[in-house]
Amino acid sequence: MDTQQMAAKIIVLETAALEEWNKGNPTPYLELLSPDITYFDPFLEKRKDGFESMRIFYEGLRGKGKVDRYEMIDPVVQLYGSVAVLTYQLHSYADGVDFPWNCTEVYREKEAGQWQIVHNHWSFIRPMDLEWLK
Amino acid sequence: MDTQQMAAKIIVLETAALEEWNKGNPTPYLELLSPDITYFDPFLEKRKDGFESMRIFYEGLRGKGKVDRYEMIDPVVQLYGSVAVLTYQLHSYADGVDFPWNCTEVYREKEAGQWQIVHNHWSFIRPMDLEWLK
C-alpha cells in the first residue's frame, strides 16, 4: 500500500469505529485499542492508562451519548513507518447540541495490516480569552 | 540506548523546551518542531499545520504567558521504533492562577539522535457535567 492508501485505511478504521460509537456502541473502538493505550478526554481528571481501564470506562458509556449526526473535518494522517498520527476536528450533534472536538489518534501497525490505537486525546474546541497572556 | 534511556531523553528534551517557554522563550520548541508539525490547543479554532504556521504563532507569543512555577505530572513515553508518544499533565502557575493541562507530544527520530515533534495537542483539564450522557 502506498502512503495515500495507508492514510485512507486509517481514516476508514476511525470512521467505522466512530459511527458505532455514535450509536452507543463502544465495541469497535475497544477492538482497536492497544494493551498500552493512553487516553485523555475533557471529562477525566487523569489520563487513563491501559486497555482494562478503557474497557471499564467505555462499557460504562455503552448505550449512552448517542450522536444524531457528525462531521469529521479535515482529517490528516502523518505516517512514520508503523505509526500513523491521525488528527481531525469533529462536530457531534446530539439532542440539537453541537459538541465540537479536537481529536488525536495515534495508530500503530502491530502486525502487517493490524492497526491498533496506542494513544487518543479528545478535547473541546473552545477558543478562550487571551487577556491573561498580555 | 535502551527503552528507559530513550524515554528519559524525550522527557529531558520536553522539559528543557518547556522551561524556556515558561520564560516567554519559544525558541527551543521551535527548534524541535518538524516541518510537518500538526498542533491543537484550546485557544485555536483550527489545527495548525506546518512549521511556518507554528513559527508565526509562537513568535507572536514571545515574551508573553510567563509561568512562575510548573509541575509536570506522571509523564509516560510510549516508544515504537523511531516514534515516541509523550503524554503528561502540567500545572502552570502564572500570576497565582493554576492552568491545568493535558499534553500529548509525538516525537519522531528523524536521524539518529535527532528527535523532532511531529504532533502536539494541548487541552485544559476540566471535568465536565455528564448529565447530557444520561
Quick overview of this protein structure:
Chain A is α+β, with helices and mostly antiparallel strands and 134 residues long.
Q: Largest sheet of chain A at a glance?
A: 6 strands, mixed
Number of strands of chain A: 6
Overall spatial form of chain A: globular
- Give the end-to-end Cα distance of chain A, rounded to a whole number of Å: 49 Å
Give the number of helices of chain A.
3
Runs of chain A in which pLDDT lies below 50 for 5 or more consecutive residues are 130-134
Oligomer: homodimer
Mean pLDDT of chain A: 93
Q: Report the order of strands and helices of chain A.
A: HHEEHEEEE
Largest interface: A-B, 43 and 43 residues
Q: Percent of residues of chain A in helical segments?
A: 25-40%
> What proportion strand of chain A?
35-45%
Structural class of chain A: alpha+beta
**How do the strands line up in the largest sheet of chain A?**
2-1-6-5-4-3
Notes on the structure:
Two copies of one chain form a homodimer. In chain A, a hairpin with a 2-residue loop joins strand 5 and strand 6 (114-124). Chain A is of the alpha+beta class and 134 residues long. Chain A contains three helices and six strands, in the order H-H-E-E-H-E-E-E-E. In chain A, strands 2-1-6-5-4-3 form a six-stranded mixed β-sheet. Chain A binds chain B through residues 36, 38, 40, 42-47, 49, 61, 64-65, 74, 76, 78, 80-83, 85, 87, 89, 94-95, 97, 102, 104, 106, 108, 118-119, 121, 123-128, 130, 132-134, and chain B through 36, 38, 40, 42-47, 49, 61, 64-65, 74, 76, 78, 80-83, 85, 87, 89, 94-95, 97, 102, 104, 106, 108, 118-119, 121, 123-128, 130, 132-134.
